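Fold this sequence, please.
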Amino acid sequence: MLVFANLFLVLVNQSETQLSFAAFTRIDRVTAGVYLTIFAIIGSIIYIPSVGAMAKMAALSLPQLGVAIALAMASTFWWDAVKMYRKCRGNSPD
């Protein structure tokens, strides 16, 4: 969950006024490459038994993965609500 939360946090912190989903549509090639590499490493650690054994991790079921991603999103995307509130009030930092 922490890895997903950190990835989402990068999106949230890219702008003080724009929502994370807008930042996600503007990802450049380098950032996309970093994200894909991180997801590939996480996937190999979790779902390739020999690699997971070295890291002492077990495979997640689909519901467990969904819960981990949902919690990561909830723990980071709440800041988008703050951004929208600031934008509506007109006291945005940008």
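The helical segments are 2-12, 20-25, 29-47, 49-55, 62-89. The two ends are 31 Å apart (CA to CA).
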